[in-house]
Amino acid sequence: MSYAVKEMFLTLQGEGVHAGRRAVFVRFAGCNLWSGREQDRASAICQFCDTDFVGTDGLGGGKFADAAALATAAAEFWGEAVERRFVVLTGGEPMLQIDDAIVDAFHAESFEIAIESNGTLPVHPRIDWVCISPKAGSQVVQRSGDELKLVWPQAGTDITALETWDFAHFLLQPMDNAQAQANHAAAIDMVLARPKWRLTIQTHKLLGLR
Protein backbone atom coordinates (compact mmCIF):
# COMPACT_ATOMS: atom_id res chain seq x y z
CA MET A 1 0.00 0.00 0.00
CA SER A 2 1.24 3.51 -0.81
CA TYR A 3 0.56 6.56 1.32
CA ALA A 4 -0.35 10.13 0.29
CA VAL A 5 1.22 12.77 2.53
CA LYS A 6 0.51 16.46 2.11
CA GLU A 7 3.51 17.59 4.16
CA MET A 8 6.04 16.49 6.76
CA PHE A 9 8.18 18.72 8.95
CA LEU A 10 9.99 19.08 12.26
CA THR A 11 8.36 21.53 14.65
CA LEU A 12 7.06 21.95 18.19
CA GLN A 13 3.64 20.59 19.01
CA GLY A 14 1.48 23.69 19.32
CA GLU A 15 -1.69 22.39 20.93
CA GLY A 16 -2.94 20.22 23.74
CA VAL A 17 -1.20 18.27 26.47
CA HIS A 18 2.07 17.93 24.52
CA ALA A 19 2.31 21.63 23.59
CA GLY A 20 5.95 22.68 23.31
CA ARG A 21 7.26 19.18 22.63
CA ARG A 22 9.60 18.55 19.70
CA ALA A 23 7.74 16.55 17.07
CA VAL A 24 7.74 15.45 13.46
CA PHE A 25 4.36 16.21 11.92
CA VAL A 26 3.10 13.91 9.18
CA ARG A 27 0.02 15.43 7.56
CA PHE A 28 -1.86 12.86 5.50
CA ALA A 29 -3.83 14.01 2.48
CA GLY A 30 -7.60 13.64 2.42
CA CYS A 31 -10.48 13.93 4.88
CA ASN A 32 -13.93 12.40 5.23
CA LEU A 33 -15.63 15.54 6.60
CA TRP A 34 -14.58 18.06 3.92
CA SER A 35 -13.04 17.77 0.47
CA GLY A 36 -10.58 20.59 1.21
CA ARG A 37 -12.00 22.67 -1.67
CA GLU A 38 -13.39 26.07 -0.76
CA GLN A 39 -16.41 25.58 -3.03
CA ASP A 40 -17.44 22.62 -0.85
CA ARG A 41 -16.90 24.25 2.55
CA ALA A 42 -20.46 25.49 3.07
CA SER A 43 -21.92 22.01 2.55
CA ALA A 44 -19.26 20.13 4.55
CA ILE A 45 -19.77 18.63 7.99
CA CYS A 46 -16.60 20.42 9.14
CA GLN A 47 -16.75 23.99 7.87
CA PHE A 48 -14.07 25.66 10.03
CA CYS A 49 -10.95 23.67 9.10
CA ASP A 50 -7.90 25.94 8.72
CA THR A 51 -5.57 23.29 7.25
CA ASP A 52 -4.54 22.57 3.67
CA PHE A 53 -4.56 18.78 3.30
CA VAL A 54 -5.21 18.52 -0.45
CA GLY A 55 -2.58 16.90 -2.66
CA THR A 56 0.98 15.85 -1.87
CA ASP A 57 2.86 19.00 -2.84
CA GLY A 58 3.75 20.40 0.58
CA LEU A 59 7.15 20.51 2.26
CA GLY A 60 8.27 16.93 2.80
CA GLY A 61 5.11 15.60 1.20
CA GLY A 62 4.68 13.08 -1.55
CA LYS A 63 3.56 9.56 -2.38
CA PHE A 64 5.40 7.00 -0.28
CA ALA A 65 5.61 3.53 -1.76
CA ASP A 66 5.48 1.77 1.60
CA ALA A 67 5.37 2.37 5.34
CA ALA A 68 9.11 1.86 5.80
CA ALA A 69 9.87 4.68 3.36
CA LEU A 70 7.49 6.98 5.20
CA ALA A 71 8.93 6.22 8.64
CA THR A 72 12.49 6.60 7.32
CA ALA A 73 11.64 10.05 5.94
CA ALA A 74 10.23 11.07 9.33
CA ALA A 75 13.36 9.80 11.07
CA GLU A 76 15.47 11.94 8.75
CA PHE A 77 13.51 15.02 9.79
CA TRP A 78 14.07 14.13 13.44
CA GLY A 79 17.81 13.61 13.11
CA GLU A 80 20.27 11.10 14.55
CA ALA A 81 19.14 11.12 18.19
CA VAL A 82 16.68 8.34 19.00
CA GLU A 83 15.65 9.39 22.50
CA ARG A 84 12.08 10.67 22.91
CA ARG A 85 11.29 10.51 19.20
CA PHE A 86 7.74 11.78 18.74
CA VAL A 87 5.66 11.75 15.56
CA VAL A 88 2.21 13.30 15.18
CA LEU A 89 0.00 11.73 12.52
CA THR A 90 -2.56 14.28 11.43
CA GLY A 91 -4.52 15.43 8.39
CA GLY A 92 -7.12 15.79 7.04
CA GLU A 93 -8.14 12.53 8.63
CA PRO A 94 -5.13 10.26 9.15
CA MET A 95 -7.14 7.11 9.93
CA LEU A 96 -8.14 6.94 6.27
CA GLN A 97 -4.60 5.69 5.61
CA ILE A 98 -3.08 4.40 8.86
CA ASP A 99 -2.65 0.64 9.05
CA ASP A 100 -0.58 -2.02 10.84
CA ALA A 101 2.40 -1.39 8.58
CA ILE A 102 2.62 2.31 9.43
CA VAL A 103 2.41 1.69 13.17
CA ASP A 104 5.04 -1.05 12.98
CA ALA A 105 7.35 1.09 10.84
CA PHE A 106 7.26 4.12 13.15
CA HIS A 107 7.78 1.98 16.23
CA ALA A 108 10.74 0.33 14.48
CA GLU A 109 12.23 3.82 14.12
CA SER A 110 11.80 4.36 17.90
CA PHE A 111 8.96 6.87 17.53
CA GLU A 112 6.23 7.41 20.08
CA ILE A 113 3.16 7.77 17.84
CA ALA A 114 0.46 10.36 18.45
CA ILE A 115 -2.62 10.84 16.30
CA GLU A 116 -4.98 13.78 15.83
CA SER A 117 -8.27 12.43 14.48
CA ASN A 118 -11.89 13.50 14.15
CA GLY A 119 -12.93 10.20 15.71
CA THR A 120 -15.27 9.05 12.95
CA LEU A 121 -13.09 6.00 12.33
CA PRO A 122 -11.69 3.64 14.98
CA VAL A 123 -8.13 4.56 15.90
CA HIS A 124 -5.45 1.89 15.53
CA PRO A 125 -5.11 0.19 18.95
CA ARG A 126 -1.31 0.39 19.06
CA ILE A 127 -1.04 4.16 18.63
CA ASP A 128 0.56 5.56 21.78
CA TRP A 129 -1.30 8.86 22.20
CA VAL A 130 -4.85 9.37 20.93
CA CYS A 131 -6.21 12.90 20.51
CA ILE A 132 -9.78 13.15 19.23
CA SER A 133 -11.26 16.44 18.01
CA PRO A 134 -14.99 15.82 17.42
CA LYS A 135 -16.94 17.85 14.88
CA ALA A 136 -20.61 18.67 15.45
CA GLY A 137 -22.84 16.74 13.06
CA SER A 138 -20.42 13.83 12.64
CA GLN A 139 -20.79 10.32 14.03
CA VAL A 140 -17.91 9.83 16.45
CA VAL A 141 -17.08 6.17 17.09
CA GLN A 142 -13.75 6.68 18.90
CA ARG A 143 -14.99 7.82 22.31
CA SER A 144 -11.93 6.93 24.37
CA GLY A 145 -8.31 7.97 24.35
CA ASP A 146 -5.81 10.27 25.98
CA GLU A 147 -7.02 13.70 24.91
CA LEU A 148 -10.40 15.07 23.82
CA LYS A 149 -9.77 18.42 22.12
CA LEU A 150 -12.97 20.30 21.35
CA VAL A 151 -12.82 23.37 19.11
CA TRP A 152 -15.22 25.93 20.62
CA PRO A 153 -17.85 27.14 20.01
CA GLN A 154 -19.58 24.58 17.78
CA ALA A 155 -23.33 24.87 17.40
CA GLY A 156 -25.14 21.64 18.16
CA THR A 157 -22.45 20.23 20.46
CA ASP A 158 -23.71 18.44 23.56
CA ILE A 159 -20.83 19.13 25.90
CA THR A 160 -22.51 17.26 28.74
CA ALA A 161 -22.56 14.09 26.63
CA LEU A 162 -18.90 14.55 25.70
CA GLU A 163 -18.00 14.62 29.38
CA THR A 164 -19.14 10.99 29.69
CA TRP A 165 -16.56 9.80 27.14
CA ASP A 166 -13.47 7.96 28.38
CA PHE A 167 -10.57 10.41 28.03
CA ALA A 168 -7.78 11.33 30.43
CA HIS A 169 -7.77 15.02 29.40
CA PHE A 170 -10.62 17.30 28.26
CA LEU A 171 -9.39 20.38 26.39
CA LEU A 172 -11.29 23.33 24.94
CA GLN A 173 -9.66 25.21 22.05
CA PRO A 174 -11.08 28.54 20.83
CA MET A 175 -12.03 28.47 17.16
CA ASP A 176 -9.66 30.55 15.03
CA ASN A 177 -11.86 32.60 12.71
CA ALA A 178 -13.09 36.16 12.28
CA GLN A 179 -14.75 35.98 15.72
CA ALA A 180 -11.58 34.87 17.46
CA GLN A 181 -11.83 37.34 20.34
CA ALA A 182 -15.40 36.31 21.14
CA ASN A 183 -14.43 32.64 20.80
CA HIS A 184 -11.63 33.07 23.32
CA ALA A 185 -14.06 34.63 25.78
CA ALA A 186 -16.61 31.86 25.21
CA ALA A 187 -13.98 29.15 25.78
CA ILE A 188 -12.72 30.83 28.96
CA ASP A 189 -16.27 31.12 30.29
CA MET A 190 -16.93 27.45 29.56
CA VAL A 191 -13.78 26.30 31.37
CA LEU A 192 -14.63 28.49 34.35
CA ALA A 193 -18.11 26.98 34.44
CA ARG A 194 -17.06 23.35 33.85
CA PRO A 195 -13.84 22.42 35.70
CA LYS A 196 -13.47 19.10 33.86
CA TRP A 197 -12.17 21.11 30.91
CA ARG A 198 -8.87 22.89 30.38
CA LEU A 199 -8.11 25.72 27.95
CA THR A 200 -5.64 25.11 25.13
CA ILE A 201 -4.58 27.64 22.52
CA GLN A 202 -2.69 27.30 19.24
CA THR A 203 0.73 28.38 20.47
CA HIS A 204 2.40 27.52 17.15
CA LYS A 205 0.46 30.34 15.49
CA LEU A 206 1.57 32.79 18.18
CA LEU A 207 5.19 31.71 17.68
CA GLY A 208 5.08 31.68 13.88
CA LEU A 209 5.67 27.91 13.66
CA ARG A 210 4.11 25.48 11.22
Automatic annotation (TrEMBL):
Residue sites binding S-adenosyl-L-methionine per the record: F48, C49, D50, G92, S133, P134, K135, Q173, P174, M175, D176
Cofactor(s) this protein cannot do without: S-adenosyl-L-methionine; [4Fe-4S] cluster; Mg(2+)
Cofactor details (free text): Binds 1 S-adenosyl-L-methionine per subunit. Binds 1 [4Fe-4S] cluster. The cluster is coordinated with 3 cysteines and an exchangeable S-adenosyl-L-methionine.
Broad class of enzyme this protein falls into: lyase
UniProt: substrate binding residues: L12, Q13, G14, R27, T90
PROSITE patterns to which the protein is assigned, alphabetical: RADICAL_SAM
Enzyme Commission no: 4.3.99.3
UniProt: Mg(2+) binding residues: T51
Single GO MF descriptor: lyase activity
Domain annotation Radical SAM core: ranges: 18-210
Substrates-to-products reaction catalysed: 6-carboxy-5,6,7,8-tetrahydropterin + H(+) = 7-carboxy-7-carbaguanine + NH4(+)
Pathway: Purine metabolism; 7-cyano-7-deazaguanine biosynthesis
Keyword flag Zinc: no
Function: Catalyzes the complex heterocyclic radical-mediated conversion of 6-carboxy-5,6,7,8-tetrahydropterin (CPH4) to 7-carboxy-7-deazaguanine (CDG), a step common to the biosynthetic pathways of all 7-deazapurine-containing compounds.
Similarity remark: Belongs to the radical SAM superfamily. 7-carboxy-7-deazaguanine synthase family.
Subunit structure: Homodimer.
Protein's name according to its UniProt entry: 7-carboxy-7-deazaguanine synthase
Origin species: Sphingomonas qilianensis
